[in-house]
């Protein structure tokens, strides 16, 4: 059975953020799925993606962008996951949170442009949604992306619950599954050193640096992402 590529989006984005990469993978004949991530909590999001993956049945290569990297770190322990690819993503260690991993490095440009909005949780308690200022989104999140596309992405972003920043990873799938990493060298959302540190700690099989790439490298240089995914597929299918 061929390996299915499951693309997991991150915070302040949705499945459409993967559109250029999805198109190239489909054109190359790969089986691809791009599920929506609730972006409500790391625990809940990882459980949702794990169930999605397990229901596919056959082998799966999980590809996570940004916060999606944290999600695949936990969800990737599913038995049918055969490999992990991190794209400008968080490769958390067990018992580590997004905040803890980021805390060891200088802040990116993102922190000054976050918007916090209250919402009500199902149990009636208050929660907080975090998103990026619409005006700042193109420069901070989508630098190098076509301005018209960046504008659409800015007004359609999917917020992340503040809860997700403090929750710790219960698993570290990269410990037992082969992994690959892509660093967006001009990332203004995540300090590229956060990506490099996580990838080095995980002893990934290969790490690719894309010079000049923004956080949304999937739009600015989708072929670089596809090349790494294709390399990973060749390895896990060998």
Helices, strands, pairings?
Blueprint: E1 4-8, H1 19-27, E2 31-33, H2 42-56, E3 60-65, H3 67-75, E4 81-87, H4 98-103, E5 114-120, E6 126-132, H5 137-140, H6 147-155, E7 160-161, H7 163-166, E8 179-184, H8 192-201, E9 206-210, H9 217-220, H10 222-237
Parallel strand pairs: 1-2, 1-3, 3-4, 4-8, 8-9
Antiparallel strand pairs: 5-6, 6-7
GO molecular function, one term: catalytic activity
Organism: Microlunatus flavus
Pfam families: Abhydrolase_6
What does this protein look like?
With 238 residues, the chain is α/β, with parallel strands linked by helices. It has a single domain, classed as Alpha/Beta hydrolase fold, catalytic domain (Rossmann fold, 3-Layer(aba) Sandwich). Helices cover 36% and strands 20% of the residues. It has 10 helices and 9 strands. A 6-stranded parallel β-sheet has the order 2-1-3-4-8-9, sandwiched between helices. A 3-stranded antiparallel β-sheet has the order 5-6-7. Strand 8, helix 8 and strand 9 form a beta-alpha-beta unit. The longest helix is centred in the C-terminal third of the chain and has 16 residues. The two termini are 13 Å apart.
């Amino acid at each position: 059975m061929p390996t299915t590529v499951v693309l997991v989006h991150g915070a302040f984005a949705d499945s459409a953020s993967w559109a250029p990469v999805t198109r190239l993978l489909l054109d190359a004949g790969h089986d691809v799925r791009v599920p929506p991530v609730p972006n409500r909590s790391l625990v809940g999001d990882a459980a949702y993606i794990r169930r999605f993956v397990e229901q596919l049945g056959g082998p799966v290569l999980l590809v996570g962008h940004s916060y999606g990297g944290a999600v695949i770190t936990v969800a990737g322990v599913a038995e049918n996951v055969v490999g992990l690819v991190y794209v400008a993503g968080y490769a958390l260690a067990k018992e580590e949170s997004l905040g803890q991993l980021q805390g060891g490095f200088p802040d990116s440009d993102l922190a000054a442009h976050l918007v916090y909005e209250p919402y009500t949780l199902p149990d009636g308690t208050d929660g907080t949604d975090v998103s990026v200022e619409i005006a700042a989104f193109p420069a901070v999140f989508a630098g190098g992306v076509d301005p018209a596309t960046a504008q659409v992405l800015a007004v359609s972003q999917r917020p992340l619950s503040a809860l997700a920043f403090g929750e710790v990873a219960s698993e570290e799938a990269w410990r037992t599954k082969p992994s690959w990493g892509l660093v967006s060298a001009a990332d203004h959302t995540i300090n590229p050193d956060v990506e490099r540190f996580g990838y080095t700690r995980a002893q990934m099989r290969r790490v690719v640096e894309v010079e000049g790439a923004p956080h949304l490298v999937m739009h600015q240089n989708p072929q670089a992402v596809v090349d790494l995914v294709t390399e990973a597929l060749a390895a896990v299918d060998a």
